[in-house]
Amino acid sequence: MRHLGLDRLDVVNLRLMGDVHAPRDGSLEAPFTALARLRDQGLIRHLGLSNVTASQIAEAQQIAPVVCVQNHYNLVHRSDDGLIDHLAAQGIAFVPFFPLGGFSPIQSDTLSDIARDVAATPLQVALAWLLARSRNLVLIPGTASLSHLRENCAASDMVLSADVRERLGTLAQT
Ligand SMILES: NC(=O)c1ccc[n+]([C@@H]2O[C@H](COP(=O)([O-])OP(=O)(O)OC[C@H]3O[C@@H](n4cnc5c(N)ncnc54)[C@H](OP(=O)(O)O)[C@@H]3O)[C@@H](O)[C@H]2O)c1
Fold it and tell me: 108: which residues sit within 8 A by CB, 6+ positions away?
């Protein structure tokens, strides 16, 4: 906080190691209680979780409020579909990590065909699909390219038709 020139962090996630990019059940009581203490001291405003299961979220909520969950999710990796809806019902943000597929961004003929139909790039379509997926999704696509950053921001203005969203829904691998 000294380096950032802040006296309080707006949000801090407890990131569990799990199976690296997939969660694994196990108690988070000790580390989350430590973060809750920092919140009680006013050093952290809100707490979040990353790489967690639904039962770990429930355990954390017994300790302190959870405002966001950051898990692996994108157009083709959808094992958290149920969790997203569950969190949306509680007003908790879901922040997908690897929203574009991560180290190997998503590639698919169907996605490319749809992108051509809607005059966008495939990864813009992937981001627009996420934004349409649920109101509680907050996107953090990574890029080292200014032109990709501009493309990614422009995806927030796209509106995908129900037909396009249905075709994209067939890409899910899990
Ligand atoms: N909580 C966790 O455990 C966890 C795990 C992994 C990642 N994260 C976080 O999640 C965020 C996103 O993850 P990420 O960056 O690894 O994965 P990502 O956003 O799914 O994908 C990034 C990749 O997509 C490429 N890309 C971005 N925009 C593009 C565009 N418009 N057209 C073509 N390629 C494009 C990037 O290359 P260019 O640089 O060439 O654009 C990069 O190779 C980051 O903030 C990261 O720190 C969190």
Answer: 76, 122, 171
